[in-house]
Amino acid sequence: MAEETAKSKPIRFGILGCAEIARKLSRAIGLAPNAVLVAVGSRSLDKARRFIADNGLSAADVSAAGSYESVLDDPGVDAVYVPLPTSLHVRWAVAAAQRGKHLLLEKPTALCAADLDLILDACRSRGVQFMDSTMWMHHPRTAKMRELLSDSARFGQTKTIGSNFSFAADSEFLQNDIRVKPDLDALGALGDMGWYCIRSILWAADYELPKKAIALHGAVKNEAGVILSCGSSLLWEDGKVATFHCSFLSHLNMELSVVGTGGSLQLSDFVIPFEEEKAPFSFASGSAFTELVTGWQPLPSKHIVTTSLPQEALMVEELSRLVASIRDSAGKPDDKWPTISRKTQLVLDAVKASLDQGCVPVDIVE
């Protein structure tokens, strides 16, 4: 009975910082069946208390802390979600790992792969689970799309991948948001939105790293040199090609297209589904023009994948499952998630280097 009780205990989460995205994650933790929020830390105790009140949390169940250290030092916290500015990730993610806290880290994970390696090394040395907060990876639609891309008879060999993520930021965002400040999130749109594009491309390529990145001309930066809009091509040795564009300056768009020798897959909401309870995509296989070139035959099939939990809650549920395995069964951290994060960061680094060097080709070395 004691063993059964231990295995049913939810994973207890703390949150470091009261960023806007933390509101979404506090809800996700509440929805996940195997997780519970127990602490919120801020540099201001009043701010932590306001976060708890404003998000409908119980002050009796969720403690407010006036420092991040207080959350990390709390023995009642198993895992922490870190939505702090990217420039603070190394300091606080490493501190969390050193205190034995499992880690859900907001993207981009770091300013460069060398910084991410410091975080991952700390996680490995303490045997804690690492996962970045790329939520769409955990939606059941993602698994369904993978099934189709893996069907060599219907899809064939991947040839081209295209990804776009943009939204039209207002003047307040462009002047004051942390994502346009060089001392807070120096990667700008490339880190915030390009991360998703790069991850989607790697996902479509089954995580095979491209060999080269070539940034596209026409990137836009603010007066402080932070990227507001940019794009890149990625090249593989076998001839695969991918392109992506990310921007704070264009209308909301989340397109992903994957084209193979025998089929193609498209969706228009890959980062955040149009609707929380269901997510669409289309898949075509063996399509050709009709006799008079007036249409397609066969038409792409339309798919809608439903979910009982939003993708961010499924992400929390998956991390909690991995943490519980370590806690209850002496399991080891799953290296899948840190490996994927590091590959994403390596490609991001190469795109940034290409931009900084005048859009020259930059090798991607694992």
TrEMBL record:
SUPFAM superfamilies: Glyceraldehyde-3-phosphate dehydrogenase-like, C-terminal domain (SSF55347), NAD(P)-binding Rossmann-fold domains (SSF51735). Residues 11-131 form the Gfo/Idh/MocA-like oxidoreductase N-terminal domain. Pfam families: GFO_IDH_MocA, GFO_IDH_MocA_C3. Coiled coil: none annotated. It comes from the Eukaryota. GO terms for molecular function: nucleotide binding. Residues 144-265 form the GFO/IDH/MocA-like oxidoreductase domain. Belongs to the Gfo/Idh/MocA family. This is Gfo/Idh/MocA-like oxidoreductase N-terminal domain-containing protein. It comes from Canna indica (Indian-shot).
